[in-house]
Amino acid sequence: SSDYRVKLVEVGPRDGLQNEKRAIPLATKLELIKRLAKTGLTTIEAGSFVSPKWVPQMDHSSEILQHLLQNPPPGPNPLTFSFLAPNLKGLSNAFTVLSQHPTAFAPDGTAPTKEKPGLEIAVFASATESFSRKNLNCDIATSLTRFKEVIQAAKDTHSLRVRAYISVVLGCPFEGYDVDPHRVAEVATALLEMGADEISLGDTTGMGTAPRTKELLNCLSKAGVRNEDVAMHFHDTYGQALVNTAVALEHGIRTFDCSVGGLGGCPYSPGATGNVATEDMVYFMETLGMNTGVDLDAVVDVGDWITKEIGKENASTVGKAVLGA
Ligand code: HMG
Ligand code: MG
């Protein structure tokens, strides 16, 4: 039944790579997306229209978007590609590409096909003022004003679906564990009222624990945020990502972000390690009888390939076990 279906959002090509110091060639990024598309994943975060001065690794995002529209990668399922955009400048860089291919993607509200992928823009707010300043160079209120413009323009101009992240929801590198779940609920409600289609709750620092995940989700539910509008974005810094995932599943959440090979880390969160590995997430869901639609062996192979390609250790426990490494 649909209650056993889980949507995984692969964030490896963006969250996984954004923090890499060495420049990763465009061809490697495109090859990663192409390989991920073959595993059964349906949603892939492919780039980020942020300032190249702030995050140089994401500077290929226009080329990536262009390539994905011109040559949608083949796979078992129709795909949706997601790109971060923090402001109108980032959105207009995305629009420059979209205006050249205005019919190459499925507008929001229509089903993506293998020929016409879906497209999504993602804005990213913060649960604390200090993280907002570090990550976006402005306070939360100002960021929300900008996101309102971005959400409206994304929808009005190209009928794009919009996801909205909230970072540091379970712990902040600057304010510690002292993140108010009511503040998270306020920001989530504001973003949903602006028209965001989905809120992804980011445990940027991996400081989330099972009881605090439960407390946060209860608080959001009480504030009227619906489970179907929420995704969880766990980082595995303290090894708690799957425990927290279990708590969120129990609460009724069915969308989870993950990154192949456990790649990742946020440039504005010192010491942050990768997202929960896609391999670990797929394996975990299989043990629970949940259906992800993703082929475990196929995604393990992608994790093995990309970590070797960029010279990083494979951070997926399941990946290493399956590979016998
Ligand atoms: P700013 O310096 O305040 O921007 O940065 P500004 O508006 O003052 O503009 C300064 C210059 O940047 C101007 O150029 C702008 O045109 C340019 P100049 O006139 O000096 O030549 N500019 C841009 N260029 C390209 N793309 C843009 C853009 N915007 C301005 N979009 C800004 C503000 C938001 C741009 C900056 O802070 C920034 O890029 N931040 C992004 C930080 C980031 O990418 N963080 C990682 C993603 S979030 C994350 O990883 C967490 C997540 O995974 C969830 C979780 O784990 O919690 C999502
Ligand atoms: Mg992240």
From TrEMBL:
Its EC number is 4.1.3.4. It catalyses: (3S)-3-hydroxy-3-methylglutaryl-CoA = acetoacetate + acetyl-CoA. Pfam families: HMGL-like. One of its GO terms (biological process) is L-leucine catabolic process. Gene3D superfamilies: Aldolase class I. Residues 6-300 form the Pyruvate carboxyltransferase domain. PROSITE patterns: PYR_CT. Signal peptide: none annotated. Keywords: Lyase, Metal-binding. GO terms for molecular function: hydroxymethylglutaryl-CoA lyase activity; metal ion binding. It is an enzyme of class 4 (lyase). Pathway: Metabolic intermediate metabolism; (S)-3-hydroxy-3-methylglutaryl-CoA degradation; acetoacetate from (S)-3-hydroxy-3-methylglutaryl-CoA: step 1/1. It comes from the Eukaryota. InterPro entries: Aldolase_TIM (IPR013785), HMGL (IPR043594), PYR_CT (IPR000891). Belongs to the HMG-CoA lyase family. This is hydroxymethylglutaryl-CoA lyase. It comes from Corynascus novoguineensis.
